[in-house]
Amino acid sequence: MAYLWLILSGACSVAASVALKAAGAGSAQATLTAQALPYLGAVGAYGLGFALYALALRQLDLTLAYPLMVACAIVGVFLYGLVSGAESISAMRMAGAACIAVGVFLMSR
C-alpha cells in the first residue's frame, strides 16, 4: 500500500505543477477569483500529496521513498508534456530522465 501512496503523492505533485503552469498562463483580464483558482488547486494538491507521502513514510525508508516519489512526479510531468503538447520533450531531456530513473533504481537496491 505504501507504493500506492507514493504514486498518488507524485500524481498530486504533477497536478500542482500543472495548476501552477496554468496560473502563470492566465489572462490578465480574468477576475480575481478565476486567477486564484489554479493557485488554490495547486496548494490543495501539494497538501494532499504531502499527506499521502507521510502515509508512505510510515512503511518505507526515506532514502527509498523520496526518490521513488520524485521519479513518479518526473514521469507524470513528461506524460503531461507529451499528451498536452504544451512542452517540448527533447532527446537531452529524455536522457536526463533516464539517468534519474537509473539512479532511482540503483538507490532502491
Automatic annotation (TrEMBL):
Stored SUPFAM superfamilies: Multidrug resistance efflux transporter EmrE (SSF103481)
Family listed: Belongs to the drug/metabolite transporter (DMT) superfamily. Small multidrug resistance (SMR) (TC 2.A.7.1) family.
Organism: Achromobacter arsenitoxydans SY8
Protein name from the UniProt record: Small multidrug resistance protein
Main location: membrane
GO cellular component, one term: plasma membrane
PANTHER family: 4-AMINO-4-DEOXY-L-ARABINOSE-PHOSPHOUNDECAPRENOL FLIPPASE SUBUNIT ARNF-RELATED, SMR FAMILY PROTON-DEPENDENT DRUG EFFLUX TRANSPORTER SUGE
Pfam families noted in UniProt: Multi_Drug_Res
